[in-house]
From TrEMBL:
Residues 412-622 form the Histidine kinase domain. It is found in: Cell inner membrane. CDD domains: HisKA, PDC1_DGC_like. One of its GO terms (molecular function) is ATP binding. The keyword Secreted does not apply. This is C4-dicarboxylate transport sensor protein DctB. Signal peptide: none annotated. Pfam families: dCache_1, HATPase_c, HisKA. One of its GO terms (cellular component) is plasma membrane. The chain crosses the membrane at residues 21-41, 313-334.
Length: 628
């Protein structure tokens, strides 16, 4: 009879042994699956975060490129204002050429451009800012250049290329000069773009700009410059070679080893670098994000390395696999421990039942009290959470309001300083001419005016900083002084667009900062001048009256008025009725906010006789407060 016992024991042990041997295999597969899943989740989240960060950098740096390009768009058309330029194009003489050369040299030095030169209608250079250099453009025939062919037909010439004389790259802006209803010549400005590349290199940014031909013209990596980002056909290469746009560069193609689209304008691309022996290294992956630059057929591309994202994803995958393995080990240990405790719990079952019965009776007697206490604690906790949430929301709302005002003032600083800068430019140019002529008294008066304009600009920027620091900017301002200061800032525009000014007000002391009142008047008068620019009879009335404790100043013009559909949007940010790029739509918004901050108001009126009137209402300061 003892013989069958080993067989029974063997039957019991064998399934347990097989189970223990096969258990690690599914556990290992699950661990690998968790690791791979963690890698995919972390890689996807990291890529999305990198895309969001890249979009912000892409917008920031693309806007920087657009600002750099648009800085000099006005410069070619400025030559139409110089009489010597028109006389040289109509009747070229050596004396007139010398005058224009000196003028272009000074203008180029002040503007900070690479070169400014003048071409006749045949494409030959008549005058240039680098006329004294060994590589001067004087006398060259540039009729083959695309920017000349566009400008001579009345279109704005925009062109990036390498100079055929100096071999130096640059961005060319051309404008056809009109006299007597016909184009008599072309003004060209060559701009240096190397500053953008230097900023990218300092910021350790991997980015480049490609032109309409797919050629990289600007790059943080000098090795990528003048390489094609897309395949060029034989006809394209022949056409570009004939145009000499890129001089004699080979225009080699720069193609990635792998490419995968991730969205609109977003790609994952890889490159394999080769060492000096031609051996390829491991593929490097980048996130490529592109955006077209405004007013140009160029594209700005930002490359973000994916190496750190993949490394973090690998670490997260390993951690997920290790975490699953640890969890599985704990579950197995817990299962074994549960089996041991099951035998002990069976012996204590009777005692536990007695204890449970006692606890049940106690729970029934104290249930109502516990429920009441629990309900009271829940109400206290919810009320504390609600108070904390409300306090945080109020703090965030106050901070958001401050940041919104600071952002509005910061974005409009260029609009506020534009007219003083224009006045400084005109006065400084006149001072140089008066010094050359020996008119020291006139030059001295111009320098004093420049000093006053600089002080005014300092007051404006100081006022902006004060507005950002504190909530109360009530001060005192003299109306007569503010009007004179505003007219001084706008004197250049008033000379170009003269008008008849009717001053029908008495001087008053108003409860607003002096600089802020001048800013409001500059915006209102400038808008009136722009509105009447297309008519011959220009009338501007400044009418003041006292209404209780407030002073009402009306700024009215006889312009064409504001269309009815646009009146309700006048004080909205970035809304403007000016054509093209003549306004940002921030002047009236800023003026209204300044008047409101001083306790007053700014509203628009539309007289039946035509034109537009803006009613500025500000509190008056009592004589005793003014003297104090």
């Amino acid at each position: 009879m003892p013989a069958p016992l080993p067989a029974v024991s063997l039957q019991i042990v064998k399934p347990s042994l097989i189970r223990n041997l096969l258990l690690p295999i599914p556990l290992l597969l699950l661990m690998l699956g968790f690791g791979y899943g963690g890698y995919l989740v972390s890689s996807g989240a990291g890529t999305r975060a990198l895309i969001d960060s890249g979009e912000r950098q892409l917008e920031l740096h693309a806007s920087g490129v657009e600002r750099e390009i648009s800085r000099y768009t006005y410069l070619p058309s400025l030559l139409e204002l110089e009489g010597n330029v028109s006389r040289l194009l109509l009747e070229p003489t050596p004396y007139r050429r010398d005058l224009v050369n000196a003028y272009l040299e000074g203008l180029n030095r002040r503007a900070g451009s690479r070169a400014i030169y003048l071409l006749d209608t045949s494409g030959r250079v008549l005058a240039t800012s680098n006329w004294q250099d060994a590589d001067s453009y004087l006398g060259e025939d540039l009729s083959f250049r695309a920017y000349f062919q566009q400008a001579v037909t009345g279109q704005p010439g925009r062109f990036y290329g390498i100079g055929s004389t100096t071999g130096e790259p640059g961005y060319y802006l051309a404008h056809g000069l009109v006299h007597g209803g016909r184009i008599i010549g072309v003004a060209v400005v060559k701009v240096k773009m190397e500053a953008l590349e230097e900023r990218w290199e300092k910021a350790q940014l991997q980015a480049f700009v490609s032109d309409e031909n797919g050629i990289i013209i600007l790059s943080s990596n000098p090795q990528l410059r003048l390489k094609a980002v897309r395949p060029l056909s034989a006809d394209d290469k022949e056409r570009l070679a004939r145009s000499l746009q890129y001089y004699w560069w080979a225009l080699n193609e720069w193609q990635p080893s792998s490419r995968k689209a991730l969205g609109d304008g977003v790609e994952e691309i890889g490159f394999r670098d080769k060492d000096a022996k031609g051996v390829e290294h491991a593929e490097r992956l980048y996130l490529a994000q592109s955006r077209r630059l405004g007013d140009t057929p160029w594209h700005f591309t930002l490359l973000s390395p994916l190496r750190d994202v993949r490394r973090e994803a690998m670490i997260h995958g390993v951690l997920a696999a290790v975490g699953f393995a640890l969890l599985a080990f704990l579950l197995i240990a817990w299962n074994e421990r549960r089996k041991v405790l099951a035998t002990r719990l069976a012996a204590r079952e009777a005692l536990q039942q007695a204890n449970d019965e006692l606890e049940r009776r106690i729970a029934e007697r104290t249930g109502d009290l516990r429920a009441s206490n629990q309900h009271l604690r829940e109400q206290i906790r919810e009320r504390r959470q609600a108070e904390e949430t409300l306090r945080k929301a109020q703090d965030r709302l106050v901070q958001a309001g401050k940041l919104a005002v600071i952002g509005q003032m910061s974005t409009s600083i260029a609009h506020e300083l534009n007219q003083p800068l224009a006045a400084l430019r005109t006065l400084s140019g006149n001072t140089v001419r008066f010094l050359q002529r020996g008119a020291l008294d006139t030059a001295s008066s111009n320098l004093e005016a420049i000093n006053e304009m600089v002080d005014r600009m300092g007051r404006i920027t100081g006022s902006l900083r004060a507005f950002a620091r504190r909530a109360d900017d009530h001060g005192q301002a003299r109306l007569d002084k503010a009007v004179d200061a505003a007219l001084l800032v706008l004197q250049v525009r008033l000379k170009a667009c003269p008008l008849t000014l009717h001053r029908e007000f008495e001087d008053a002391c108003l409860g607003i900062d002096q600089t802020r009142l001048e800013q409001i008047l500059v915006n209102l008068i400038a808008n009136a001048v722009d509105a009447m620019s297309a008519q011959d009879d220009r009338q501007l009335w400044l009418v003041g009256r006292i209404e209780g404790t407030f002073y009402q100043l009306s700024v009215r013009d006889n312009g064409p008025g504001i269309p009815p559909h646009a009146r309700q949007h006048l004080f909205e940010p970035f809304f403007t009725t000016k054509p093209g790029e003549h306004g940002l739509g921030l002047g009236l918004t800023l003026s209204a906010s300044l008047a409101t901050a001083a306790g007053g108001s700014l509203v628009a009126a539309h007289p039946e006789g035509g034109g537009t009137a803006f009613e500025l209402s500000l509190p008056m300061v009592r004589p005793e407060e003014s003297s104090a």
